[in-house]
Fold this protein.
Amino acid sequence: MIELLNVSRKYGDFFAVKDISLEIKKGEIFGFLGVNGAGKTTTLRMVTGVLKPSSGSISLGGFLMSKEPEKAKAITGYIPDRPYIYSKLTAREFLYFVCDLYNVGYKESESRIDHLLDEYGLIDWQNELVDSFSHGMKQRLATAAALVHHPQILVIDEPMVGLDPHGARLLKDSLRKYASEGMTIFLSTHSLNVAEELSDRVAIIDHGSILTIGSVSELREQSGNFEDNLENIFLKLTAGKTHTERRVG
Amino acid sequence: MIPVLIKPGLYKFKNILKLSLKDKRELLRTIVIFSLLSLLVLFAHFGTYSALQALASQSDKIFIPSSLPLSLILLVIFFLLFFSSSIATLGNFYLGKDIEFILASPISHGSFFWGKFVQVLIHAGWMACIFAVPMLFAFGSFYSASYEFFVLAIVGLFIFLCIPVSISIIFVTLFAAVVPAKRSRETFLVGILVLLFAIVVLVEPFAEQKGSDLDQTLALLRLFLLPEAQLLPSQWLGSYLHSFLEPQVGDRATWHLLQTLFVALSLISLAFVSIRLLHSYAFSKAQTSTISSKIVSSRARMRFCWLKEMAPSYCRAIFAKELKLFARDTTQTVQLALLLGLCILYLSNFQSLQIGRHLDVVMAVWWESFLVVCNVFLGGLVLVAVCARFVFPSISLEGKSFWLLQSSPLSLRDIMRGKFLFWFVPLGVISSVIFTSGAMAINVDFHIACIHAMASWILAYGIVGLAVGMGAIFSNFEWEHPSQLMSSTGSLLYMISAALLVFISLLPTSFLVIMRTLRNLGHDIPTITWYSIIVLCSAALVCLQHVVVRWAIQHGERALAKKVYQ
């Protein structure tokens, strides 16, 4: 469903992402792990078409992002780590706007919006300006917006940032449910618990390159210690490689 | 010595300069921008110089002391600066993204005030200086003034600029402290309407009495502009500088400079006191008032369903979003009200130029034709001013929310097309109202009124398209407050380009008007030739606008792609 082939992204002489190739299957939850500045957000932004790769190709649902970006984006939902939303729109108006952008039919969008506002606990706030929302509420609204057009692929950057325990639980349950219904989910996180709990497979990225890919049990096997949790595996693989974050793109 | 709040801006400027020195394309872009600005400075200088020469050549008929044009220029700058610094004050003192961070830091009231004061002065005043300094220097060159004049002109201008900035800080602070943020738009609009009504009521009797011949019409225009009113700082500085230019005519009025300095210092002190006493209260009030802003409207109205059959879904989305954001943004509403006032004053002034009945028949016909062309030109400039405020920044105003449009199934061209369509229709209506009202104010016949209406829509097409395209070329998503976008170099370059477009568009329009005038004066122009001229002039006007819009959109799309994808 998602295919990255030799994808690189350069800023001047600096490689934010270097020669990444991976394939994510339909209905799979794929976790992208890395320290700050490892290249997670840059990769996700390239996958969603927000950023163009310097080289390599990205295909979503069979549509090449470089050739048919509109078609690829139409089947994708994106939740950035810091979702800036038009502050002078109400939650409902914002969702109408997204429905119109993705050409969701009028009747269908009404029921879909009602359902999502209810699911993400925003129904009582639907006529309030986004201006007055907390970070967690904005995050939930961004999640609802990413799901409003029934995407086949969902790309999430740091899904749990700003969510309270209830919100986090709600999102985890939703993601599992959507994946079981066939949605492909590509999430980046530096929270190892989240990755371990949710992901079918994970990739660990460092300095723009993928160090390893596999399910948590496969990674345990690779590390040679079957008792290791993901945190230990991650620390072993990235030992001594913590570096100052360089936010790019 | 440098206020601490100014330092980030200086670092930013330094970093941009460093980066542009590293990147050849950026360097080229910077050089082009600076070259265009230099050209503008030269144009302002030599344009003023030529105007002074033309005035001097008519000195045997009418003597105009240099203090009058000087005061006039300074008065225009004063009002423009008051408007733009009111917007900049709102942004820098109350709505800026850095305010919370600054207020949470142990910064003194004095540092806060000085930092923000200088920011407002720079944001609102730099564009005025680009025009004012070369104009003042042109006066100095023309009258062969001593070096003292050039130094004191800059010092005097700086002191003078502090006055409208201080007044706007006091005005905005009092406004924010007294009026709840929820009601600020309505209160401001009512205030503007009351002011306009008062102007009409006060001026109308005077216009009826005096608007009888050319001299009295000019006297009426002077009443609107008030360049010689003794209580205005523009008059004080004008008189002071005049004493250097024509020492034999004017007295060496050092007192006027001291008067300007004293008033500037008093107003700055008053502005400081108002910030010291009221800022935290006004800022808190502005914050708390916006929190419970519940908006309930019918679902159908919210989605613009009536547009369903007429425009693609994404256009409807952009229409609905733009309209709601525009209507809910206090800054935009305030600017719209100010521009509305400007349009009414323009039309009111324009009406008073209708003096054809005092001229012989031939001259009256040519005078009317001249007014028709003037109406297209001035109406076009008003439209440029409106577009520079609202359309040019529309892409940059997406700010950090642009990710949403980028990740949606829309191309950059679709986004630009949506913006263009949203602004074209209302601005076409506004421009046709301005153009036809101007035409009606000078009592033109039905055909000319139709030509005005047609020209207004065609010009609106070009000016709005150019604004969207250049807005994309100079897009900046990292603004602290929208007022920065309107006072940017890109905005200035847009205004120059659009004014140039209006000027070039005058060629086919003027040709059409001249041919019609000749026809009215009895020259033999066959009907077929006349209609061919109408078709050719209209086609030339349309083609010109289309070529400009195409160029702007193409380059805008390319520049935007480079900015957001790379």
The longest helix of chain A spans residues 165-180. The beta strands of chain A are 2-11, 14-24, 29-34, 55-60, 63-64, 76-79, 153-157, 184-189, 201-206, 209-214.
